[in-house]
Specification:
This protein has 175 residues and is mainly α. The protein is built from twelve helices and two strands; from the N terminus they run ααααααααβαααβα. The chain is flat, with a radius of gyration of 26 Å. Among the domains are: 45-101, Recoverin, domain 1; 111-174, Recoverin, domain 1 (Orthogonal Bundle). The longest helix has 22 residues, at 2-23.
């Protein structure tokens, strides 16, 4: 009789504990009751890319240079300047800033930056496995075309030539 009562007590206690734990929602208070308001406040605190650009772009050229980035109060843009500046032109434009804030890869990444980002074994070239592992579909689909010397590796010159050819049609369409 005592063991049955003990089992019932343990079962009841376990159920109450589980209900209490799961009723609280996820950590950070963004789920369940009242969580929507806190989540709303959090998203309001982070300005969008255009707001950041307008605040830091002191010379109104629609891009942020290293000097302007150093004026970022949080220091994050200055600290990550080289990663955000995906085309290595020495400036952060709106597209690069948006891509960085959204955790996406920016369009128009320079060949050097592509190698730096994708090259897992540090040999300065990209093999098919490295390209596939980083889900660079555009490079994967064109790997054999890009690899003009057929060595199974994409080097800087091959990437530069391929990306330059990709840019020409875009420029011609704009003109």
């Amino acid at each position: 009789m005592k063991t049955q009562n003990l089992k019932k007590t343990i079962t009841l206690f376990s159920m109450l504990l589980c209900i209490g734990v799961f009723a609280q929602g996820p950590p950070g208070g963004q789920g369940g009751r009242g969580g929507g308001q806190k989540g709303q406040q959090r998203s309001d605190r982070q300005p969008d890319a255009s707001q950041i650009l307008s605040k830091l772009d002191s010379n109104n050229d629609d891009k942020i240079d290293k000097d302007e980035a150093s004026k970022d109060k949080r220091g994050k843009i200055s600290e990550d300047f080289d990663q955000i500046d995906s085309n290595d032109d020495g400036f952060i434009d709106l597209d690069e800033l948006e891509a960085s804030l959204n955790g996406k890869k920016p369009k128009g990444m320079s060949p050097k930056k592509l190698i730096k980002t994708i090259d897992d074994n540090g040999d300065g070239t990209l093999n098919e496995l490295e390209v596939a592992a980083k889900e660079e579909i555009h490079l994967s689909n064109n790997f054999k075309t890009i690899d003009t010397n057929n060595d199974g590796e994409l080097d800087l010159k091959e990437l530069e030539a391929f990306l330059a050819n990709q840019e020409k049609p875009k420029r011609e369409k704009r003109d």
